[in-house]
Amino acid sequence: MANSRNLFHAMPPDRRRRLSDIAVEVSMPRATRLFEEGRRADRFWIIHSGQVALDQRVPGRRAAVVETLGRGELLGWSWLFPPYLWHLGAQTVGPVEAVEFDARVVRDLCESDPVLGRAMYRYVAETVADRLHGTRVRLLDLYGPQGSGLDA
């Protein structure tokens, strides 16, 4: 359940250019480890094609995949909130094409441009809220009373 709005569409038209000027197109092969839980969150991506698995460490076991992101989705939000550490790990499932942003540059842009900053914070908050809702639905499907998932 991804935020249906693209990051650039979430920006006021006159601010889109400022973001696109700092965006870098990247290509990543299959099985590329993008970040690790607990490490410094210094960038984020908007996925153009391919998929990225988000995972969480489980003591004594292999990391558990908790969500898979795809086309048009925001990869990474930990960069926006102190202490700027990743909450999960991420690895490409197959080849991925994305646009990458330097977190410090975007945070500085958000501070210097309150209109852009408000739009960015709102976009990220909506994305996190959508993912939290999706997680709740999955938990209900797994552990809730029968029939309590999406129909609830």
Biggest sheet record: 4 strands, antiparallel
* Strand order in space, largest sheet: 1-8-3-6
Residue runs with pLDDT of under 50 for 5 or more positions: none
What proportion of the residues form beta strands (DSSP E)? 25-35%
Which of globular, elongated, flat, extended, rod-shaped describes the shape? globular
- How many helical elements? 4
Report a brief summary of the structure.
The chain is an alpha+beta fold.
Polypeptide structure, described:
The chain is of the alpha+beta class and 152 residues long. Helices cover 36% and strands 29% of the residues. It has four helices and eight strands. The chain has helices at 7-10, 13-22, 103-112, 114-143; strands at residues 24-28, 33-35, 43-49, 52-58, 61-69, 74-75, 89-92, 96-102. The chain has a four-stranded antiparallel β-sheet with strand order 1-8-3-6. A hairpin with a 2-residue loop joins strand 4 (52-58) and strand 5 (61-69). Helix 3 crosses helix 4. The longest helix has 30 residues, at 114-143. The relative contact order is 0.23. The mean pLDDT is 90.
Please describe the topology of this protein.
Elements: H1 7-10, H2 13-22, E1 24-28, E2 33-35, E3 43-49, E4 52-58, E5 61-69, E6 74-75, E7 89-92, E8 96-102, H3 103-112, H4 114-143
Antiparallel strand pairs: 1-8, 2-7, 3-6, 3-8, 4-5, 4-7
List keywords for this structure.
single chain, 152 residues, four-stranded antiparallel beta sheet, 36% helix
